[in-house]
Amino acid sequence: MNQCYERRENLDLKLTSHDYQKRLDRIDIGNSVEQALYYPIQLLLESILDDRFWVTDTSLRSRKDVGNFKSVPDLMIFDENHGINTDKLTNSVAVLEIKYFPWKPENRLDTNQNQAESYLEKTNKVIYTNGIEWRFISKEKDMETICLGNDNNIPDSYYEVIDRNKLESQIHWKKEQKFNEAWEDLKDKIKDFI
Fold it and tell me: Structure pTM?
């Protein structure tokens, strides 16, 4: 086994729901760019998936390096049992497309879903998320969605009143019990989907 996997096996990657919320709230307050979401989402995946899976940020790679997708996925998931070509990141078991929070109507997942669906030409499974809403898209099943908050139910008038200078998150997480249920559903779905 190569060193990358050996090191990972020695890490205790347990991301709690509270830690995840806190990370996303901090991103919303102080580093509100899509790329800031990559790490907490990658950490969540790595804390859930078996050690044989490798999640990597491919957002800065060229299209030819990741299998000639129409656009480059933000994250890719590999299974060491299926072989990993380190020269070209091919043979992924799933890809992730991440969008920033939908505080503007053009950032809503619905307006960009064609990009995520285009990955199905080269892979069987796509996870499309903004960290709050998670869409699981595959060739075999209808899309499934799990929401940790109500970001996609905010009326358009809400976008006009957001004061981005306030030091508080605009994420509207589900109430504790409902959030915990959705969190467990999300973890189970990720395991089942991959």
Answer: 0.79
